[in-house]
Amino acid sequence: MSPRIQPVQPPFPEFAAKVFERLMPPGVPPLTLFTTLAHDERLFSRFMAGGLLDKGNLTMRQREIVIHRITARCKSEYEWGVHMALFADRVGFTPAQRRALLHGAANDVAWSDPVERALIAYCDELNDACEVSDAHWSALRAHLGEPAMLEVTMLCGYYRMVSYMTNALKLRPEPYASRF
User: Fold this and answer.
1) Cβ contacts of 26 within 8 Å, gap of 6 or more
2) Under a CB-based contact definition with an 8 Å cutoff, are residues 171 and 30 in contact?
3) Which of 13, 17, 27, 93 is the most exposed place for a label (fewest CB within 10 A)?
4) 118 sits in which H/E element
5) Closest by alpha carbon to 127, among 100, 105, 156?
């Protein structure tokens, strides 16, 4: 499988090189998604401005549950694999939780925390129906404040868009990424 748009090769445009220097650890090449977006400064900058990987209203573990669940439901092996490789150990996902994020349901035995179960149910419904029932909203709202509810919803939408991009562009998984 070849990507539909070839990534920009080094030397990178200055606008992208500055971001890559800031984001990527020394010696690690920038993600193919980033180098593909580097074809257009406007799109690149808008995409980078939309990221929500900073310290926000959710714990890193909650954020990663949302990202993993949405990218799994959208069949974005590229993005799911990058996040699994870079964050799964850091947030303490067990092997059973890693499988459940890909194949399980909110009531999977891998999940005992009610907040995590509510997050998964919320993500699933929002992704599948593009809306959330009062029941799922209330179940998650019982644990999270309004800013966190906004952030969960934005994360779902952002990573659905990322999944659209990686799938439509047919990006190959990064060499270090986990696979479905």
Assistant:
1) none
2) no
3) 27
4) helix 114-129
5) 156
| Residue 165, amino acid | M
Assign residue 170 a region: left if phi > 0, alpha if psi is -120 to 50, beta otherwise?
Answer: left
**Residues found in the chain:** 180
19 vs 29: CA distance, rounded Å: 12
Of 170, 91, 161, residue with least CA distance to 127: 161
Neighbours of 11 (CB within 10 A): 8
Residues 6 or more apart from 156 whose CB is under 8 A from it?
66, 70, 122, 123, 126, 127
Q: Which two tokens stand for residue 48?
A: 């980078």
Question: What is the pTM assigned to this prediction?
Answer: 0.95
Q: For CA atoms 140, 160, 81, 85, give the dihedral sign.
A: negative
